[in-house]
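Input record (Table S2, row 274):
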Amino acid sequence: MIPLTPIMRLALTVLTPLLVMTLVRHTAERLWPAHLKRQRLHGVALAVWGALIFGQALAAPALGGVATLVVNSLGGGLVRLPEHGIGWWAGLAAYFLAMDLAEYLFHRAQHRIPLLWAMHSLHHSDRAFDSTTAARHFWLEPGIKTVTIWLAVGVLLKAPVSVVGVYVAVSYYHYIVHSNTQLDFGRWSWVLNGPGYHRLHHSSAEEHFNVNFASLFPIFDVLSGAYRPLRPGERVQTGLDTGEEPHTAGEALAWPFRGVLQRTARRTRALAST
Ligand SMILES: [Zn+2]
Ligand SMILES: [Zn+2]
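Output record (zinc ion complex):
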């Protein structure tokens, strides 16, 4: 194996999601779009790319993976997963299931707890829904996930570095899950999350609220009654039901506080005009 310096690892962590997103944008989204492509990129795009580089690529999931490994090296990990042979594969499956269940529960909490929804609604505000949506998360969320999901699984499972590495690599699949493509697994939607299935989760129609929370495995949706596959030919308008979306990078960065900021700005303008 080629030895990697810390700088090379950092560059790889930043470049991989950029590369995956660029690939998806210039192949599947161009050849096989599910809806009209995004008209033009403006301030929000800057925020999206900023969030991608600093929030997603640098912090998550690399930060989460590092957190797990740090917890493990400090003696955490109630169950030690096998490092070799057939046991490694079983451990890999157990790790994926544990992480996916933790992601699932966190995602459900994001839709139920107002403070978490105030942040997560930025991800849902995209009316275009394409691979850039995968990186549209409030900047604080990777940190919150690190001290909840990744920490909890790190305390539960002591996984080999290779297992955590495979999980981090597979997590880039979310750029495909969010892609503007007609890819849909139809009656096999319960096996693996995909663009058609996840687009329904982003629907602005009330009838689609609280369905399809899955990160990788929709089996958790099936078990909790939140499973709703896309119907053949069904069109979905994504975005928030209120129509709210950020128009500048600043609005995206201050997303949960936008109400307070808007009220303060209105008050300031009112005072200045008197
Ligand atoms: Zn959601
Ligand atoms: Zn999403």
